[in-house]
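(Fold this chain)
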Amino acid sequence: MQRRGALFGMPGGSGGRKMAAGDIGELLVPHMPTIRVPRSGDRVYKNECAFSYDSPNSEGGLYVCMNTFLAFGREHVERHFRKTGQSVYMHLKRHVREKVRGASGGALPKRRNSKIFLDLDTDDDLNSDDYEYEDEAKLVIFPDHYEIALPNIEELPALVTIACDAVLSSKSPYRKQDPDTWENELPVSKYANNLTQLDNGVRIPPSGWKCARCDLRENLWLNLTDGSVLCGKWFFDSSGGNGHALEHYRDMGYPLAVKLGTITPDGADVYSFQEEEPVLDPHLAKHLAHFGIDMLHMHGTENGLQDNDIKLRVSEWEVIQESGTKLKPMYGPGYTGLKNLGNSCYLSSVMQAIFSIPEFQRAYVGNLPRIFDYSPLDPTQDFNTQMTKLGHGLLSGQYSKPPVKSELIEQVMKEEHKPQQNGISPRMFKAFVSKSHPEFSSNRQQDAQEFFLHLVNLVERNRIGSENPSDVFRFLVEERIQCCQTRKVRYTERVDYLMQLPVAMEAATNKDELIAYELTRREAEANRRPLPELVRAKIPFSACLQAFSEPENVDDFWSSALQAKSAGVKTSRFASFPEYLVVQIKKFTFGLDWVPKKFDVSIDMPDLLDINHLRARGLQPGEEELPDISPPIVIPDDSKDRLMNQLIDPSDIDESSVMQLAEMGFPLEACRKAVYFTGNMGAEVAFNWIIVHMEEPDFAEPLTMPGYGGAASAGASVFGASGLDNQPPEEIVAIITSMGFQRNQAIQALRATNNNLERALDWIFSHPEFEEDSDFVIEMENNANANIISEAKPEGPRVKDGSGTYELFAFISHMGTSTMSGHYICHIKKEGRWVIYNDHKVCASERPPKDLGYMYFYRRIPS
């Protein structure tokens, strides 16, 4: 095996208590029962500490337990030893040194370094032409820190040698967790660091590409060595082509090519002809810049001809990222960036905002010793541990240090370079919080708002004692429904975690400019001329707030006063104000062609926000409540049978309809549920289901089978005992509420009948006098995947009511045409100035684009 051969050519380690050759076998004998060879399915962590972001690149290296295969930095390995008694660890360390200089002053050319055997990312800040890497491995025995240099094939027992070799050759643990989830995780090309690029003056235009040999205009690949544009073949893209890109490689030997039309600020499709597989190029931006391509301004289209929306987005990308402005990097505690794992910017932006809130800082980082000391044996699978790890990584300043001054670099490089790690990789955190979620566990771009609610749900489910930091977002919404004919009203309350503001397009203050721009744009498109400068709709924030507070019609409203359907209107007000108010601008909608689109608007979001006028007032004098009577719906037996039979076996779901909906930008699981609950009646019917249900808290949750009859009884024990713990399956609740019954009524009926749908319907018909149980309040969380049930008077500060006056302290912006594509960044106000967090880059903001945000975070101003 190549890695084993590389390891066995490596010199011994240094710095600990070394053993004489004759003592090694005797020393290991007591520990042999604890040393394991990794089996299939074991997760071997050799790149990242379970409690910190230490790695083999760190000064203290990384210790891998030879029993659990968990990894620990120097500050945390003793904790694991004390807790488990495991004594044998493999210590991994990567050294970075300056290359030996030749007589002319340049670095001597070297062959491929055989001393590299760890699968680690290289330091992007170091020029690989000037530095070389050397990996070191050794066994360390605790508590005396005896060191056994590797390789030591003659002295070590065979089992230990095999175990060491298996650990070093193991693959990423994230692939083993769920192969389907991480199928898009690509290897870094071995040619990326030292790729030769010819200085031949080639510059690639932004469009109009064609193959240099056959004039094809699709499936084109740019060779990153000489800039040749040639057509591909089925080997990677499954598209048509004559294989000229592959022929060019065979003629010239230039290994890497990037597919034109896939280049975005987040990356591109790169193929290695030599390695014969898709790869990652960590220096892709530099390699493309060699041919005049700026990744920050690229947006993927198949043939390079930019559509209308693509052209409009250019300005958006530049403004939000503050391109063209020399931004000053910031370092230290609270100024640590998060590396992009490939469309993980939605997660990074939300977590930066979350950990700028003192309550989250105290709950996790403030309790770090206790959380780490009492973490389970596998801390990689514990939410609170991973939240604390991430929070400490962001707030400690340990991974955000300014570069060393040039004179100090010279002194350091004479011996050994000690690289400063800037930015942390949230791979372990993302793997855990997205586990079992079909969307967040993928490498696709996601909606930051949906992830925020998903995170709130995880915080709720994993609260630390009575402390729940997500309570700062929690508030009550009062919904008032009025029968237009009788004027009688009904008041209900629900829990929410964010305020969704509609975009009041009709209130644009520059309508004349917009009309003129649209005419000019269409004329330019028709005549194939350059498009005019973008004119963005300017929407007053007050208009959006007014649209939020205006009454809305209730479809199919059944008036209990009339005992019949009638016109009804609903208004929403705040029954309580949260400590931190999250405002989402509803920029995304659907066109007449079902294609998702984004409102490209500018909204004058205020720094100071006062919404006290939206405080709920409850039942007013003179108002009369609607009778609490259920609709007298009679369902014939044959209709019940049809209802049961329309739910098909999940294995029979029409996948073609699912994919039609998914291509419109809807979450895959939502599409599957839409097709399932509409009985495979086609994409159009399923689309209507999506439109009706897309605001529901479990919209993007995986499809789970409801129980009927005996199956429901058997499944009841899975969901818990009766009472508050027995939450009925959401699918059955949705079926009953779709018939016109109240949600609370449906839940109480299902609980009374052990989640049996037929018996629940009979129960409802036999209890027309249904009254809501006063012992509990059903709260429909606006959450990505949970409905939380709490008592009417819950223990602890579940709602932190107060003044409705707020100050803006953070906002998340989205660039692109859909939440399923594009890029997110975050701006946070710290120490009196705005800071931009763009993945791993953290800089002082010069022009924070507060008018183009997607999610806004406000903190209450004490009254």
About this structure: The first strand starts at residue 17 and ends at 18. DSSP finds 26 helices and 31 strands in the chain. The CA atoms of residues 272 and 315 lie 33 Å apart. Residues 728-771 form a domain with the Helicase, Ruva Protein; domain 3 fold (CATH 1.10.8.10).
